Predict the structure.
Amino acid sequence: MSEHSDQPEPDRIEGAPHPRMTPHLYGHEAAQADFLDAYNSGRLHHGWLITGPRGVGKATLAWRIARFLLATPEDDGGIFGAPPPPQTLDIAEDHPVMHRTRALSEPGLFLLRRGGSGSTESLREKNYAEGKFAAEILVGEVRKLTGFFSLSAADGGRRVVIIDAADEMNVQAANAILKMLEEPPARTTLLMIAHQPSRLLPTIRSRCRELRLHPLAADDMTRALEQAGGHGVENPAALAELSGGSVGNAFRLTNLDGMKIYAELVRLYDSLPDLDRARAQALAQAAATRGAEAKLDLLLALNDLLLARLARTGALGHPPRTEAAHGEAAMLSRLSPNPQRARAWADTAQAISARVGHARAVNLDPAALVLDTVFKLQKTASG
């Protein structure tokens, strides 16, 4: 695969570069230091579980570790003694390992991820090329590791397996990986990315060392987004707040004008209980436009987030420290001034979630879905 291929991949955010193309990792110095400490002390574990919210840089860290392990010579006890311990996971941009990993041609690396959907191998290959991916990592993908280990054993070097994401494995695939953790192949490191580690077998978690990543602060978010080719950020603090410190979420928000959509929602809520019908109709019409499915999904997700921030404001007695849109704090305080109102908004969030699920099941018109949601909000605000 070309280093700059636009072919769909199951472990890449649409419109963003794949994590293997990302040279720098921002905001996770502690996790990188923990891994380097284990490496330099000679206690390199064979299994590593990289956890944290979706989109914060887990895959980027996994690829950095993989390149580092494959490019860093091992101490062979030669006449010149051991090299000084490395202080960073960086390797040179022109290093052959850098080019080979980007092109997915590095013989010491295996990327385990979801394959194509379908009931036969030929259909799965066809669907994979068309971007139609299976919902889970199947055991057939894990079995390909047998060939990888037999082919890569000849050179005697390190081998690295990246699983992206481990919590997408089905039961059979997870059991196959568990056996590998119980009897790890020589000179092999498994790097398992997990968005929801609680979904993994407890026996898998117990056999791995964890590197936990946390949401990014505004400055790190801005730098990471710029590296990924995102647009300039007008309000980094608001974007970090709205995205939950996730670069993946931030990329989606910037690409789909999510900040503007959220600001429009805040203005709509601010008109409650006297509903701004023109604003509500405009939101509904935008959601019904052909090809607007992604924006409808984002609108509904942002509405869920706003309802959660309303409930939290009433429960805590004050709005979040950082506004995600102009005027949000005053609106939150007015509509949710106490725990009783917080409970009302929490109940509304549950009701709307159920309605959305039902509407999707019966293919309800998107405009009708948005207006139905708005009227439910107005009813709660009238409390």
